[in-house]
Amino acid sequence: MTDFFKGVAPVRFEGPSSTNPLAYRHYNKDELVLGKRMEDHIRPAVAYWHTFAWEGGDPFGGRTFARPWHDKGMDGARLKADIAFEFFDLLDIPFFCFHDVDVAPEGDSLAESNRNLRAITDIFARKMEKSRTRLLWGTANLFANRRYMAGAATNPDPYVFAYAAGQVRTMLEITHELGGANYVLWGGREGYETLLNTNLKQEQDQAARFLSLVVEHARKIGYKGTLLIEPKPQEPTKHQYDYDVATVYGFLKTYGLEKDVKVNIEVGHAFLAGHSFEHELAVARSLGILGSVDANRNDLQSGWDTDQFPNNPGEMALAFYQILKNGGLGNGGFNFDAKVRRQSLDPADLLHGHIGGLDTLARGLKGAAAMLEDGTYDRVIEERYAGWKEKGAAAMLSGGRTLAQIADWVDADNINPQPKSGQQEYLENLVNRFV
Ligand code: XLS
Ligand code: NI
Ligand code: NI
């Protein structure tokens, strides 16, 4: 044991009346919700980057956190790994996620970086024999190093594409070896700053080739996890190609990859794209590509990806409603792509963030389950579209009637549709009954 979390007792469920700030009040992993354990619905994960790699910097100032693993090279990386697994145990959290560069320092060459990375992931493998925490997903950081300033797969320089392929090959293989349930590709700088220097078509072709290479390699090494693209409209680049779920689907379809890749939807990214979280979930659900979720929230006044912990059970219930209607997330889960604020210096702050986040998810899940069990929403939607079951209407939808036949039908039967209430306020109020 390190002394980073010295004196902190394991965080466990104590129920809604508990006043212990280091206990779960709603997240009760074994509680059955719609016949399934809460933990199996949520599959929560700690993001290594925000919790252990982020140093508290912002555009106006650098590091605010003082962590014992800082500035200590590989020794620091080993200490960080020890503390990370202590954290997973304290929270009793079943998953974590990481980028290659979160866990080990980069070397002077790809080979050296990979050696450092392997040394740490070998430690992970040993720790995972004793810990119950599993890998939800792995990913390669193809956006922080200056070589990637003009993109990775979409870089005008083919050698950058090649270097990125080298990183992804290693991280994909490591994810496979560690039993990772998914592999994520977030196109951090796969976009442009200005069209004045950009061949958009060429860059999209490059991105598609890169993704095809990843799909092929995953197959070749026998990786059975899900490959996920994480949509985001902008930030860091002015425009990112993986703008939102619909855009990603169009891209996948264009290049014939829609059966091989799903999406990892992040709450804050949905907002940046001008959507709600549940909108993105609903679109992915309708297209059959809902893979996993990055749980967080944005500060709605600041207009960027602030990656705060979720704290709105009502919004989360609407999201879970979509997820439950999807039949769950399968291999996916809820990765806390969220960080404590830069003034939250203490190790305990890391616990508070995750505890609040998990309690919010638990309340959202239970709210959505209650909405489903009550059945009103399903009934309202069912009734709203019931007209389409009528013979003539069904024929319009199935292609059994031409435009002219439909027009003639209106005349012949003197069709004169009467508007009906959409009942939005009634339905919104119902949510509050269940959350
Ligand atoms: C950044 C992204 C990133 C991905 C992983 O905005 O959310 O954290 O989840 O590369
Ligand atoms: Ni994310
Ligand atoms: Ni993000």
What do you see in this structure?
This protein has 16 helices and 12 strands. It starts with 31 loop residues before the first strand and ends with a helix. It has an 8-stranded parallel beta barrel with strand order 3-4-5-6-8-10-11-12, surrounded by 4 helices. Helix 6 (158-177) links the parallel strand 5 (134-139) and strand 6. It has 2 domains: 32-374, Alpha-Beta Barrel (TIM Barrel), CATH 3.20.20.150; 378-433, no CATH class. It has 435 residues and is α/β, with parallel strands linked by helices. It binds D-xylose (XLS) and nickel (II) ion (NI) (2 copies). One nickel (II) ion binds at residues 186, 230, 266, 294, 337.
Summarize the structure in short.
This protein has helices spanning 38-42, 48-53, 73-91, 100-103, 110-130, 158-177, 200-220, 245-254, 267-272, 277-287, 313-325, 347-374, 376-384, 391-398, 403-413, 424-434; strands at residues 32-33, 36-37, 44-47, 95-99, 134-139, 182-186, 191-192, 226-230, 239-240, 261-266, 290-295, 334-336. It has 435 residues and is an alpha/beta fold.
Discrete helix count: 16
Quickly name the level 1 CATH class of the largest domain.
Answer: Alpha Beta
Percentage of β-strand residues: 5-15%
Provide the domain count.
Answer: 2
Q: Tell me the name of the CATH homologous superfamily of the largest domain.
A: Divalent-metal-dependent TIM barrel enzymes
> Given the C-alpha coordinates, what overall shape results?
globular
Class by helix and strand content? alpha/beta
Task: Return the average pLDDT rounded to an integer.
Answer: 97
Unreliable stretches: none
Question: What is the H/E string?
Answer: EEHEHHEHHEHEEHEEHEHHEHEHHHHH
Tell me the Rg in angstroms: 24 Å
Distance between the termini: 39 Å
